[in-house]
Amino acid sequence: MRVTFRVNGRRQEADDVWEGESLLYVLRERLGLPGSKNACEQGECGSCTVRLDGVPVCACLVAAGQVEGRDVVTVEGLADYAKQRSAGGGCATAACGTSGPGTSLDAARQWESRPTDSATGEGTATSPRATLSPIQQAFIDAGAVQCGFCTPGLLVAADEMLERNPNPSDADIREALSGNLCRCTGYEKILDAVRLAAARQSEGV
Amino acid sequence: MDFLRPAGWEEALAAKAAHPTAVPIAGGTDVMVEINFDHRRPEYLLDLNRIGELGEWEVGEDTVRLGASVPYTRIMEHLRAEMPGLALASHTVASPQIRNRGGVGGNLGTASPAGDAHPALLAAGAEVEVQSVRGSRLIPIDAFYTGVKRNALAPDELIRAIHIKKADGPQQYSKVGTRNAMVIAVCAFGLALHPETRTVRTGIGSAAPTPIRAKAAEEFLNAALDEGGFWDNGKIITPSVAKHFAVLCAAACNPIDDVRGTASYRRHAVGVMARRTLTWTWESYRGTARTTEGAA
């Protein structure tokens, strides 16, 4: 079957989708978005966390056919999503944005897979190169990335929590990330990163 | 495999009537695991995500009519006052990601003895509203679970909503697991005080082939509370009464040894949870009684 939906603000079509296929498989294997990781395939590890109509879910447990006509944000779109949210001062989903979400064609053509300089923080506003979202930058600055496999899911989950709850307590952070496993057990640094992002957010940095 | 995508409830019922083997999928948190692991290859998947009313609820005078697909997250956020036991149970479900998708309808459809919602539904008192093209019926929650992962649904029926009695007193829920998140219950216990009828109801999860009530324990406690005038005098429940209640709750179990725990551990833990939840709810009931008196 064919599934048409929006991913990171762009309309996407996937063809020959098997009826029992998961959203995660469609993202990774059909749309070339391998940021969401495939580990447990049973909702246990959270490494495939994406936002479905704004809500964090495990992409491995969403049937592909269920996303028809809906809006998905993956870790690949997190920087854009965060940028739009701070510009729009609220909802960053494509449904309520009128400014045309996603990456412009020009920007897409100029994109290079070069990491942003972590020393200088996110790239300059004029740079067409994809910059990092505040939560991504905080993960780098706090040393919260080890093997990196759990990172995409944690970023999506943490970003959503900070959107909902700008001043989270440690208990709030632990609860929001309780569905994401890190087998390097780097949880302390991950908590540091989320605290850092929250602090920067409240200071308007 | 065929993916059926009804746009409305009537269409969904028609699809289920035409294809009784179709597996309904809402949050997908049970169904997709089985498909991902190749444990199940249903002929048809019946997607219920596009049926908006399944995600809605109505708070009536005596009951809450909870749409089958209302996610646990919504129950925790919006229905804590009306259904404190179910809200507590919802909070023990898996993780935020899963609670954003899963709902009570799926828990009932799967009818696993370990489903987190069941003890809370049994304790509160509930009826399951099921529908087919033939019509609609309400199944009392006590008659809903018919075996391990079996329920009273006919092949052409779908769960539309759950009618849950609004709390008229304190309710508690307790669950044993190896950690706080992402854990299937080793065993679980729900308890609800019903001061209006002066009764106590219980629900036990993961300690018998189906979720069950500890009926003998309920009868004993109801009689003991009545005899001692506890509902009126608001006294602390006598430790010997609480202890015997716990023993009877443990005796109601019919558990097995499995990877999550032994039968004897489950029996023991159910007794401990019974005593604790009784103490918590009763303390809360006494507190309420005192506040009311003070205010009057």
Automatic annotation (TrEMBL), chain A:
Polar residues composition-biased segments: 116-130
Domain 2Fe-2S ferredoxin-type span(s) in chain numbering: 1-78
Pfam families for the chain: Fer2, Fer2_2
Region (Disordered): 99-130
Domain of life according to the entry: Bacteria
SUPFAM superfamilies: 2Fe-2S ferredoxin-like (SSF54292), CO dehydrogenase ISP C-domain like (SSF47741)
GO molecular function, one term: oxidoreductase activity
Keywords noted in UniProt: 2Fe-2S, Iron, Iron-sulfur, Metal-binding, Oxidoreductase
Protein name: (2Fe-2S)-binding protein
Species of provenance: Streptomyces himalayensis subsp. himalayensis
Automatic annotation (TrEMBL), chain B:
GO molecular function terms listed in the Swiss-Prot or TrEMBL record: FAD binding; oxidoreductase activity
Residue span(s) of domain FAD-binding PCMH-type: 1-169
Coiled coil: none
SMART domains xref list: CO_deh_flav_C
Record keywords: FAD, Flavoprotein, Oxidoreductase
Gene3D superfamilies, per the entry: 3.30.465.10, CO dehydrogenase flavoprotein, C-terminal domain, Uridine Diphospho-n-acetylenolpyruvylglucosamine Reductase, domain 2
Pfam hit, one: CO_deh_flav_C
This protein's name: Xanthine dehydrogenase family protein subunit M
Source organism phylogeny: Bacteria, Bacillati, Actinomycetota, Actinomycetes, Kitasatosporales
